[in-house]
Design goal:
The protein is an alpha/beta fold. The chain contains 25 helices and 13 strands. The chain is about 45% helix and about 10% strand. Strands 2, 3, 4, 5, 6 and 7 form a six-stranded parallel sheet that branches. Strands 10-9-8-11-12 form a five-stranded parallel sheet. It has a two-stranded antiparallel ribbon with strand order 1-13. The chain is globular and about 70 Å long. Bound molecules: 2-acetamido-2-deoxy-beta-D-glucopyranose (NAG) (3 copies).
């Protein structure tokens, strides 16, 4: 059933994680909606070769026939064995020692300045998750500069194709109230500043004016004087313009509070999110701390009314398969699709990554085989399924697939669905009528994926660099109480394991895959310079029981 969804090239959506923010920033202006690109590609490539394309769509692409067969027999054998519950748990007990703490009341002098230095406007770029990061960074910057923040605006871009503004996605009043006392947030600029031409007075700050991951001192030196002189500055773009370290710990805490406490989805999103989660679990109860944070009043806590209650909830694993055409093309890797694939990806790069093409001309290329060895290739659906089988997930497991167009569509998903047929997406779980209010809003659709991934029993990602995966895993760490495991492969280790695909014994494959995943689940304190959104285990965000 999900094949149709995965395969429909006519869907008018175009969300993908960021390949490389810089590349995106540079190429944004000449990018078009994903489906248009795909259609265009089909025409560019296949004008006189349409039949071949259709054939390619039909036949599956598989790189590991032998391992696939071993996985298939292993799953058949496990079918009737008792489920091993360890799979669904975090392997390290220390995970539950950390509790959410950024919301606690602490004596602070934030927001208690004598003089308001001015107003900060931001227009955040990117999709849902990049915007979230921009908002919370702006909160910290406003506080640092003793400024008042105007409710963030979202830039419309033809990549995301979504005109949603802050209030279409997050509860405005709630946001302002939670941060009250620590930072002033207002709905709009005061009248005397509204008529200013911000660009003309030199107060428009683009990403070109500020280094990536700028430090507080950069803001004090370059932004504060403008703010004081003009009474207002406008950050255009802004995503990652505030570094993680060094930053005073009260500002770090504020940033954490913003991300984990102040941004609540609007009821429209919570309500359909709740429906989605309920349908996956096939059960009326949604009661975990994560549910509460994400679903608000739409949390159902009366399972006894549900006729399925006796069966108990079914667990599900949410999977973010970042195998979308932009990522695949950008990687320069090969994925077993032969000449067709090579041509198709090269054509895509020429249209969408002109700077990458330029760079490649002036450097000696790394071979696709070498890239694979270095762990630089995004995981294919087939590889993801092999890892999940190696971990011991049963054939009947429910998988919620987040994200959008899988590169290659059905032909790429076949090897996944032949091992794991119970694959669902928001499009298969919700009716067209239920989805209709979200259809034209890619960020709101992304919010539904965020909810389904964050509240999943297990969340598995294939790329830890993606913004969705990163924020979702942070949420699960923060609110999961040590019972919301996230699995991320170490791509280099995995490549080494898979390079033995023609000889490795299945039990040895299992062992090595399990060790690799467990290694990634170790409980560590956030390291210097690492994202607090992804790794909130640090004293500013979480408290550790002694
Ligand atoms: C902000 O206000 C506090 C308290 O009045 C003051 O100590 C600090 O220097 C101010 N910072 C800036 C950047 O104006
Ligand atoms: C979505 O956009 C299409 C094309 O612009 C329009 O026809 C349709 O009415 C829109 N749907 C909703 C729910 O806004
Ligand atoms: C699979 O095994 C073959 C034979 O050893 C090897 O040549 C190939 O590179 C392996 N595939 C991958 C993707 O590592």
């Amino acid at each position: 059933m999900c094949h149709q969804t995965l395969n429909s090239a006519h869907r008018v959506q175009c969300v993908g994680g960021s390949v490389s923010e810089k590349e995106r920033e540079r190429t944004q202006s000449n990018r078009r909606c994903y489906w248009l690109k795909v259609l265009l590609l089909i025409f560019v490539l296949k004008e006189d070769d349409r039949g071949a394309f259709i054939n390619e769509e039909k036949s599956s692409v598989q790189m590991y026939d032998r391992l696939h067969n071993l996985a298939s027999s292993a799953l058949a054998e496990k079918e009737f064995k008792q489920r091993s519950s360890r799979l669904w748990e975090e392997p390290y007990r220390q995970a539950s020692a950390w509790k959410p703490c950024a919301g606690r009341k602490v004596p602070t002098n934030l927001g208690k300045f004598d003089k308001n230095n001015g107003y900060i406007l931001i227009s955040a770029n990117g999709g849902l998750n990049q915007q979230r990061v921009a908002i919370c960074n702006a909160v910290a910057v406003a506080s640092l500069l003793n400024a008042t923040l105007v409710l963030p605006q979202f830039l419309y871009s033809n990549v995301w194709n979504d005109p949603s503004q802050f209030g279409d996605i997050y509860q405005e009043e709630y946001f302002m109230n939670i941060l009250k006392g620590e930072i002033n947030v207002v709905n709009e600029l005061p009248p005397h500043l509204r008529s200013l031409d911000i660009e003309a007075i030199g107060s428009l700050i683009t990403d070109a004016d500020l280094v990536k991951e700028a430090k507080p001192i950069d803001y004090i030196r370059h932004i504060l004087p403008l703010l004081v002189r003009n009474g207002v500055v406008h950050f255009l773009g802004f995503g990652n313009r505030l570094g993680f370290d060094p930053l005073p710990s009260n500002l770090q805490r504020l940033r954490c509070k913003c991300n984990f406490h102040a941004l609540k989805f609007v009821p429209k999103i919570q309500q359909v999110g709740s429906l989605l989660v309920r349908r996956i679990r096939n059960y009326g109860a949604a009661r975990s701390m994560l549910d509460k944070q994400l679903l608000g009043n739409f949390m159902l806590d009366n399972p006894s009314n549900n006729h399925d209650a006796a069966k108990g909830p079914s667990k599900y694993l949410a999977l973010h398969l970042r195998f979308e055409v932009d990522m695949v093309a950008y990687s320069m890797c090969e994925f077993g699709g032969g000449e067709n694939e090579r041509k198709e990806l090269q054509a895509y790069r020429e249209i969408h990554f002109p700077l990458l093409i330029e760079r490649l001309k002036n450097s000696s290329p790394i071979s696709p085989a070498e890239l694979r060895k270095l762990g630089r290739c995004p995981l294919t659906p087939e590889e993801a399924a092999l890892v999940l089988a190696g971990l011991g997930f049963k054939r009947g497991t429910y998988f919620y697939l987040a994200g959008f167009q899988i590169y290659g569509g059905k032909s790429r998903m076949d090897s996944f669905t032949s091992l794991y047929p119970n694959l669902v997406t928001k499009e298969t779980l919700l009716t067209p009528d239920e989805l209709a209010p979200f259809r034209n809003f890619s960020s709101q659709l992304a919010a539904l994926d965020f909810i389904a991934c964050a509240t999943a029993d297990v969340f598995a990602m294939t790329d830890s660099g993606s913004q969705l995966s990163s924020l979702v895993s942070g949420f699960r760490t923060y609110y999961g109480g040590g019972h919301a495991p996230t699995m991320r492969p170490n791509k280099k280790r995995l490549a080494a394991i898979l390079s033995e695909n023609s000889t490795i014994e299945w039990h040895s494959f299992e062992d090595r895959v399990k060790k690799m995943i467990e290694e990634g689940q170790r409980v560590r304190v956030r390291g210097f310079g690492r994202s607090i959104y992804r790794l909130p285990r640090c004293p500013e965000c979480m408290c550790k029981a002694q």
